[in-house]
Design brief:
With 191 residues, the chain is mostly helical. It has six helices and two strands; from the N terminus they run ββαααααα.
């Protein structure tokens, strides 16, 4: 494939429309454009996360995820095309199983906090959920493959798990929500 982007400022969007990968034009507030934008934002947040120190295996996984999100965005921009392969979802499932198995069980809800890398992973998690909602909304209006929805759902789960992993890189831990229930349980155990 040759150079596809020969000009960035085309001014064709000045009318409030944007071009899709199949050369059709839609309004910039179209559900498809919202879904594509949320996926693009998620990919950008993962790029910010990659600026942080982390284990090499997590870094490699996140770089692969960035490529898959590009495929997912491409699939959204070209109605009728399939770019996201089953192997991409399998990679997330395997990573979830591997990283989750190494973590202690949760005693309570955790806050999106801790190290900067973990906190950024939580931002990625929330943006992935928003992208998933946008894809679901698009799917209610247009025919789309199920793979993008599945991928984003699994990815948000993985980003939660990776946030927990990243909080432990230098011996840290989750930042637990100080719920009344936990406070009562702790007080009862001291009595």
């Amino acid at each position: 494939m040759g150079n596809r982007l020969t000009q960035i400022a085309t001014r064709t969007g000045d009318d409030g429309s944007t071009g899709l990968g199949d050369n059709t034009r839609v309004p910039k507030d179209h559900l498809r454009v919202h879904a594509m934008g949320d996926v693009d934002e998620l990919n950008s947040h993962i790029g910010v996360l990659l600026c942080e120190p982390m284990p090499a295996a997590v870094r490699e996984l996140l770089v692969d995820i960035q490529h898959q999100l590009f495929n997912l965005g491409g699939e959204l921009s070209m109605p009728g095309y399939t770019l996201l392969k089953a192997e991409a979802l399998l990679q997330l499932d395997n990573a979830l199983a591997e990283h989750n198995a190494a973590l202690p069980r949760l005693a309570e809800f955790i806050l999106p906090a801790g190290t900067r890398a973990a906190s950024q992973a939580h931002v990625c998690r929330t943006v992935a959920r928003r992208a998933e909602r946008a894809v679901v909304a698009l799917g209610a209006q247009a025919q789309i493959n199920a793979a993008p929805r599945h991928y984003l759902n699994r990815l948000s789960d993985l980003m939660f798990v990776l946030a927990r992993v990243l909080n432990r890189v230098d011996g840290g831990d989750d930042v637990y929500w100080k719920s009344e229930r936990m406070a009562r349980a702790a007080a009862e155990s001291r009595d």
